[in-house]
Design brief:
It is built from 13 helices and 13 strands. With about 350 residues, it is α/β, with parallel strands linked by helices. α9 packs across α12. The structure holds nicotinamide-adenine-dinucleotide and zinc ion (ZN).
Length: about 350
Amino acid sequence: MTVRSAQGDYDVTPVADAASFSGLVRDLDDPFVAIDARVAQLHPQIVSGIDKARVYAIPATEEEKTLAGVERLSLFLQERGASKRSALVVIGGGIIQDIGTFGAHIYYRGIPLHYAPTTLLSMADSCIGAKCGVNLGRYKNQLGFFKSPARVYVWPRFLETLTPDDVRSGLGEIVKLAVISGTASFESLERRFEKYGAGLDAIDEAIFSSLDTKRRVIEIDEYERDLRKTLNYGHTFGHALEAVTGHEVPHGLAVAWGMDVANYVALRKGLLPESAFARIHRLLARWFSLDIKHDYDAAALLEGMRRDKKADAATVTLILPKALGELQLVKTPLDEALGALVADYIKEHDIFRKTR
Ligand SMILES: NC(=O)c1ccc[n+]([C@@H]2O[C@H](COP(=O)([O-])OP(=O)(O)OC[C@H]3O[C@@H](n4cnc5c(N)ncnc54)[C@H](O)[C@@H]3O)[C@@H](O)[C@H]2O)c1
Ligand SMILES: [Zn+2]
């Protein structure tokens, strides 16, 4: 698959095994590797053919996803003699992707970035689209830019060491992209869940079909002026839940929950037919349920949305579906009426269960 980008088109290449990946890396001009420390431990064969002095292991923490973390990576590159001609190969999930992309973009004003995603979320979604952000102070993803990779490598065997909730988290974004894509994609996901449940069977197909949906959106609107905003479907409510529950909920599960809330709001506003709400709710409730220790209510969630960087104090732009494959941006006041809808959702439909 090739993604067209204003910064230069790039390929997403399936990788057959660790040895062929090592071969691809060694063929690059003066390659250096930044790898998730946990992935390096779990999949040592992926870097076994690469000179150890060129491999930098990074802990996947939000504290490392900062300018200080980027500086540590840059110092490593400098100490090991990386030059303008060097390439940076980044292996890891979204955290390592953000640190590595930031570093590759600023080191000597930019060196080529090669990326091998290792979580389902990064493999099916964030590895294309060129977005990059690091945290500033208490807030996430405040500093960033768009930088396209030179190439993306997809090796689904990485996914075998993920926890079941990490897999479900990635599947949450896959459902999001299927709803955005339309009835045919959603139907094929329904069949997939029916047949295999929330596991990794036939995952390659789900990954590439999600990437293809995302590709179609970002090729039209790479810099998120309008259409690309639909990719934030489920994220306004999802981010608020992540914040309110102290990040107890994995991102993609929060997005699944956020989609269900958005759908409910769309239903109550008369945008989404009852049958479409029920159909998507059935799938989300069956495969994306979660027991939550933190308490949360509509008031706290609205406060969380107020603080989210995409919202100014008084209104929020919700991405609401009218049907499968048809989403609308709706500017909505962050007021009691919205709070009441969220409260009704939590009372009557919540796919998560509060354990206290
Ligand atoms: N740049 C973008 O477009 C973009 C998009 C979405 C999310 N993000 C960012 O990505 C981060 C979340 O990324 P994520 O969910 O991909 O995961 P992650 O990078 O946060 O990693 C999650 C955990 O999984 C571990 N891990 C990674 N690969 C593994 C594997 N194959 N086997 C076992 N464990 C593995 C990591 O060490 C870590 O403990 C957030 O910081 C988010 O802001 C960026
Ligand atoms: Zn997301």
